[in-house]
């Protein structure tokens, strides 16, 4: 991290010995070690939390992709089914209209034939 070699550590120890003194140097080293340990634990906790957040975001993105993949085919099938039903409805309505007009045509023809036949019967009876 700091790229400190053997000679740099020796120089730091010599300066600390001269500044602090030999009596308080072990306490200073202990305190410095405790602070470095706390700093490392804090940094590791932050890294782990960031990693968890990244994993959660990746899982959310994967879930959204899966949800879209599920929705698209369902919507597509529903759209195709709706189109098929519309076509079927139109075909059925056309067949009904054709049958109705054919029935009405035959009905009119039968009425016309029965009306033509009825006056003849009235003439025969007279």
What does this protein look like?
Its main location: membrane. It is a single-pass membrane protein. By secondary structure, the chain is mainly α. It has a domain at 58-93. Helices cover 92% and strands 0% of the residues. The protein is rod-shaped and about 140 Å long.
Kindly summarize this structure in a few lines.
This protein is mostly helical and 126 residues long.
The assigned structural class equals: mainly alpha
Query: Sheet with the most strands?
Result: none
**Quaternary form:** single chain
Query: In terms of per-residue confidence, which ranges show pLDDT below 50 for 5 or more consecutive residues?
Result: none
| Order of secondary-structure elements | HH
Percent in helix: over 70%
Average per-residue pLDDT, rounded, comes to 84
Number of helices: 2
Rg of Cα set: 48 Å
Taken as a percent bin, the fraction of beta residues is: under 5%
Q: Could you say which overall geometry the principal axes of the C-alpha atoms support?
A: rod-shaped
Span from first to last CA? Answer: 130 Å
**Strand segment tally:** 0
């Amino acid at each position: 991290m700091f790229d400190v070699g053997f000679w740099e550590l020796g120089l730091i120890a010599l300066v600390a010995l001269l500044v602090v003194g030999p009596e308080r140097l072990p306490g200073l080293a202990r305190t410095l070690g405790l602070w470095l340990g706390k700093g490392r634990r804090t940094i590791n906790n932050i890294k782990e939390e960031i990693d968890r957040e990244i994993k959660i975001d990746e899982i959310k993105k994967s879930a959204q992709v899966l949800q879209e993949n599920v929705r698209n085919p369902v919507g597509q099938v529903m759209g195709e089914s709706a189109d098929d039903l519309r076509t079927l409805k139109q075909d059925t309505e056309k067949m009904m209209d054709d049958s109705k007009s054919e029935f009405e045509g035959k009905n009119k023809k039968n009425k016309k034939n029965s009306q033509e036949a009825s006056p003849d019967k009235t003439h025969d009876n007279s």
